[in-house]
Amino acid sequence: MTTPSARRILIASFVGTAIEFYDFYIYATAAALVIGPIFFPPGEAGVQTLQAFATFAVAFLARPVGAAAFGHFGDRIGRKATLVASLMIMGVSTVLIGCLPGYATIGWRAPALLCLLRFGQGVGFGGEWGGAALLAVENAPPGRRALYGVFPQLGAPVGFLSANLLFLALSVSLTPQAFEAWGWRLPFLASAVLVGVGLYVRLKLTETPAFRAALEAAPPERVPLATILTRHRRATVLGTLAMVAAYAVFYLSTVFALSYGTATLGYDRKTFLLFECVAILFMALAIPLSGAAADRFGRKPVMLSGLAATAALGGLIGPMLGSGASALVLGYLCLALFAMGWIFGPMGALLPELFPTRVRYTGASVTYNLAGIVGASGAPFAAQWLAGWGGIGSVGLYLALAAGISLAAVAAMPETRGQTEPRD
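Now predict its structure.
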C-alpha cells in the first residue's frame, strides 16, 4: 500500500507529464488539421501539410538541448527545481502559439515565430520526462520500480486524450470556418490553467532519497553530459535506439493516421478524432500491465515481445488502415497503440536504470529525447511522403524497420530488474 507521501509523489510525476504531453499533442493535432493553411503561404494542401509536419519536427530537434541543459542542473542541484522550470518553459511557449498571428497577417514572420516557439516547447519537454521518471523511480520500494515508473508514462495517453477530446468538442460545436479562424487556438490558451495546476503540485515536492544520498557520498559531476558521453556511451546508444519504435508507432498511428484518414480516406475530422480517442484507451491499458509484467518477468522479455508485435503491425497497416473500412481502421489504431503502450510502460524504469544516480537525470533525458529525433521528428513527414510515393504499404516497411532497430538494441542490453546501480 502506498503512503500519502508516495501518492503525492506519484501524482506529481503523473500530472506534470500529462500537462507536457497535452501541450505537445495539441500541436501535433493542429499540425495535422490547420497549421499548414494558417501559417504558410497559399498553395497545394499536401505541400502545406508537409510544411506543418516540418515545424512539428523542430521541437524534437530542440528536445536533446533541453535534456542536456535540464539534466545538467537536475543532476547537480536537484530534481524539483528543474521540473518546475521545464514545465514553465513548455507552458509559456504553448500559450504564445495560441496567440500567434498567421501568415495572412504578418507574412514570413508567422512560420519563423512558430518555429521559435516550437523550439521552446521542445526545450521544455526535453527536461520534463527524465525528471518525472526519476521522481517516481527513485522513490519506489524494492521490486516496484517499473510499476512506479508507469505513472509518468500514463501522462502520455491522458495528455493525448485530453487534447483530442478538446479538439473533438471544438469540431462538434464550431463551424469549420470558426474552428480555423480562432477555435483551434483555445486548447493552446487553456494550457495556462493546466500549468498553474502542475506548478502548485510540484512546488510541494522534496528531493528524492537517491539524489540526497548521492550528494552526501560525493560532490556532483561537473559536467554530467560529458560523463555519459565518455563513460556511458553504450548505455546512451542502446537506450536511444530502444525508444525508436515506441516513437515511430505512436506518431504514425496518431499524427500521420489523422492526416491520412481525413485527407486520403475521406473521414471527417470528428469521426477520426473519435477513433483516436477510443484507441488511446488501449495504450492507457497496456502501460500499467507492461509495468507490472516488467517487475515480475524483467524489462527485456516485456520489451522484446512488444517490439516483435510492433514489427508485425508494419505488415498490417495496408490491409487494415489502408482499407478505409471503419472496423479495420479502428482495429489497427487500437492494436498499434496497445503495442506502443506495452513497450512504453517499462521505459519509465529501464532508461533511468541504465545510468548511475549521479548522472541519471542527464542520461535518461538525453536517451529519451535523442530517440525522439530518430523515431518521431520525421515520422509524420516521412510517412506522408512514403504514402504518396509507394502507397500505405511502404509506411508499414518504415514501421517494421524502426521496430527492428529497437529490438536489436534491447536484445543487446543487460537486464536491469533488481539492480541498484549500474557499473559507473
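The CA atoms of residues 131 and 180 lie 36 Å apart.
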